[in-house]
Design goal:
Elements (H helix, E strand, L loop, with lengths): L2 H7 L13 H12 L10 E6 L2 H10 L9 E8 L10 H19 L3 E6 L4 H11 L5 E3 L1 E6 L22
Antiparallel strand pairs: 1-2, 2-4, 2-5, 3-5
Length: 169
């Protein structure tokens, strides 16, 4: 799939089949995440790939809106030590870029995905850390549910371009 086509046809998929995701695809998705730009090239991330059913259920309970059944959930986390000595908030921009790369890579590989925010919700951060035993020094940023779209999936591609939101000066 061409890059522009991938970007313009990506959609949020919320219904997944039970088909397992091939390990090669998961690795490609993670490589795409880590190819993201990061401020001062700090690469302040670690990624949890959650396959365990009990952990996935715990995540779903901790998320107010992320109640999806998918073969995997990727939890990108900010690695706080990677932001030192600068200790800047740009790491959250870095994790946004990595999360978008995950979504685009999944789509390019024929998978569906949906992104649910964890950060900046203090309650969600605490609940997810507890749900999957994330240690001190890591802050969960988002929960990205990934899998093959089910036949019942009703998500549609949306043309979100709006010229009224563009200012040429």
């Amino acid at each position: 799939m061409e890059a522009i086509e991938t970007i313009l046809t990506r959609k949020s998929v919320r219904q997944f089949s039970d088909k397992e995701i091939e390990e090669e695809k998961i690795e490609t998705i993670l490589k795409a995440a880590m190819a993201s730009p990061s401020a001062v090239n700090r690469q302040p991330w670690e990624f949890y790939v959650v396959k365990n059913k009990e952990y996935k259920e715990a995540i779903k309970k901790a998320m107010p809106f992320g109640k999806f059944d998918s073969p995997i959930i990727i939890i990108p986390c900010v690695k706080e030590s990677a932001t030192l000595p600068i200790n800047h908030d740009l790491c959250y921009c870095d994790l946004s870029a990595a999360s978008e790369n995950i979504l685009l890579a999944a789509h390019a590989l024929g998978l569906g995905a949906v992104w649910c925010a964890i950060y900046p919700g203090k309650d969600r951060i605490k609940a997810i850390k507890k749900a999957i035993n994330i240690p001190l020094g890591l802050t969960p940023f988002s929960a990205i549910y990934i899998g093959y779209p089910s036949e019942e999936d009703k998500s549609v591609i949306k043309d979100k371009y709006d010229i009224k939101k563009v200012r040429t000066i």
